[in-house]
Write a structure and sequence with these properties.
Helix content: 25-40%
EC number: 2.5.1.25
Oligomer: single chain
Number of helices: 7
Low-confidence stretches: 195-199
Order of helices and strands: EHEHEEEHHEHHH
Number of strands: 6
CATH architecture: 3-Layer(aba) Sandwich
Family: Belongs to the TDD superfamily. DTWD2 family.
Strand content: 15-25%
Protein name: tRNA-uridine aminocarboxypropyltransferase
Keywords: S-adenosyl-L-methionine, Transferase, tRNA processing
Structural class: alpha/beta
GO molecular function, one term: tRNA-uridine aminocarboxypropyltransferase activity
């Protein structure tokens, strides 16, 4: 018998995060393109970001037939938040004439690259990237490299750069609670043995 699930945050009712999810406004629009393999992941941080930002939209799929319309919003310049050749460091005032539409692929690095491959319009977008040296709070998954962040962490950092001095830290509250809940569920010993970086 499966546990009752919250239809909004998709967590078990006993661990619903909705009370922690803020409703934050932003000038920047966020378009999250989520690989289907992430939808039922226990730590679906893209969903948390989409729920917490009034100007965020979450789409799930591998090929997005309506991508042209999604990327060409009047008054917005689309940028792909993804490292790679030619990626510009994201900075305050990155887009001057129009507002910013930040396109964020969500999935493992391999799945995110697949989304770019299957959607050539994405690959053609100008790329922006975050400054190096960020430390993830995602204590349950080994980062593939330095500066690797969860989707919600990357969005918070990007918004805090583009829309400085405004803080979007409230968006991390449900994320932190999610991590703490997972650690609690696995037990302190298991966490220390498999995930803790402390010696």
């Amino acid at each position: 018998m499966s546990r009752a699930q919250c239809p909004r945050c998709m967590r078990p009712q006993t661990h619903c995060l909705c009370d922690l999810i803020p409703q934050l406004d932003s000038q920047t629009r966020i378009l999250l393109l989520q690989h289907p393999s992430e939808v039922n992941h226990a730590l679906n941080t893209a969903r948390l970001a989409a729920l917490g930002l009034t100007h965020a939209e979450l789409r799930v799929g591998e090929v997005f037939e309506d991508l042209h319309g999604l990327l060409n919003l009047p008054g917005y310049q689309a940028r792909l938040l993804f490292p790679g050749e030619g990626a510009q460091l994201l900075q305050s005032g990155a887009v001057t004439d129009d507002k910013l539409l930040l396109v964020v692929p969500d999935g493992t690095w391999r799945k995110a690259r697949k989304l770019l491959h299957l959607n050539p319009l994405l690959a053609q977008l100008p790329r922006v990237t975050l400054p190096e040296g960020a430390v993830s709070r995602y204590r349950l998954r080994k980062a593939p490299g330095p500066g690797a962040l969860s989707t919600v962490e990357a969005i918070v950092q990007a918004l805090e750069i583009v829309e400085a001095p405004r803080s979007y830290a409230a968006l991390l509250r449900p994320f932190e609670a999610l991590i703490e809940g997972q650690i609690e569920a696995m037990g302190a010993d298991t966490y220390q043995r498999n995930h803790s970086t402390q010696s």
